[in-house]
UniProtKB/TrEMBL annotation:
Keyword Glycoprotein on entry: no
Gene Ontology molecular function, alphabetical: hydrolase activity
Superkingdom in the source lineage: Bacteria
Gene3D superfamilies associated with the record: Endonuclease/exonuclease/phosphatase
Full protein name: Metal-dependent hydrolase
Domain Endonuclease/exonuclease/phosphatase per the UniProt entry, residue ranges: 14-258
């Protein structure tokens, strides 16, 4: 009989565009409890967030029973601007190292590139899955909504950065459906990219919830058949067990203008992520 150590529990990951605290009909003070509730219900080990600002992220984590910590840097430097913060469950995940890189020709500098409408960033976090004893690079990102060139060039960067860490998950708001060029640049095998391709957890032949629902809903009642612009991609060291778009509401209130997306992943053998497999 296999032990828990030999077959670790599935690694649940989530991507969640929180929407910044806009002065609109759905302010953060109304959405905060719903955002906390969906995380407390699903209990993902790792969460890639987008658009959160510093005070908003602090408030979010304060309602998560001291289970989660977060890391990241604002796109305008330090605590300024929107974050692509990573939340991690301290009972399952040990933080090892992290960095913020800008999606531009000069990733180490606070910058923008390729006609991007805003500074765009990726938060790279190297962690250890304590149950599996395996190391993982987890990347949270938010691609530009206007410049197709910026999305494509950002995808090239992300694929390379994912390969630096061996096993990897890249999750975020890609502002493009999965039939677009950014997805192909990240996931296509045999492309001119030197780094190995990633795999879309939603493309696997596994149970999927909310298949008919786009991940961006804009507070409409339902967004059937719309684009899934929020993705969870993973390297060959992992395989998807299930995936889904969560249409969670608390007392009728959606937590954001995006639905959270999540996937359950399972570790494969230690050689599964090697180049060429």
């Amino acid at each position: 009989m296999a032990t828990d150590q030999a077959v670790p529990a599935a690694l649940t990951v989530m991507s969640f565009n929180l929407r910044y605290p806009a002065a609109d009909a759905h302010p953060w003070r109304r959405r905060r409890a719903a955002a906390q509730a969906v995380i407390n219900q699903e209990l993902p080990a790792l969460i890639a967030t987008q658009e959160g600002v510093y005070d908003q992220l602090q408030e979010l984590v304060s309602g998560l029973d001291d289970r989660y910590a977060w890391t990241g840097e604002g796109r305008d430097g330090g605590d300024a601007g929107e974050f692509c913060a990573v939340l991690y469950d301290r009972r399952r995940i040990r933080f090892e190292a992290g960095a913020t890189r800008w999606l531009s020709p000069t990733p180490e500098e606070r910058s923008r590139g390729w006609g991007s409408s805003h500074r765009r960033i990726a938060t790279l976090v190297d962690v250890t899955d304590l149950r599996a004893g395996r190391q993982l690079r987890f990347i949270s990102t938010h691609l530009d909504h206007r410049s197709a060139q910026a999305r494509s060039e950002s995808a090239r960067l992300l694929r390379r950065w994912a390969a630096e860490g061996g096993a990897a998950v890249v999750a975020g708001d890609f502002n493009e459906p999965p039939d677009g060029p950014a997805h192909r640049l990240l996931c296509a095998a045999g492309s001119d990219e030197a780094a190995p391709p990633l795999r879309d957890a939603f493309a696997a032949d596994v149970p999927r919830a909310g298949d008919d629902v786009g991940s961006f809903h804009g507070y409409r009642d339902r967004h059937l058949g719309g684009p899934r612009i929020d993705w969870i991609l993973h390297s060959a060291a992992l395989t998807a067990l299930s995936s889904g778009v969560s249409q969670f509401r608390l007392d009728g209130q959606a937590p954001s203008d995006h639905w959270p997306v999540q996937a359950q992943l399972r570790w494969l053998g230690p050689d599964a992520g090697a180049r060429g497999t």
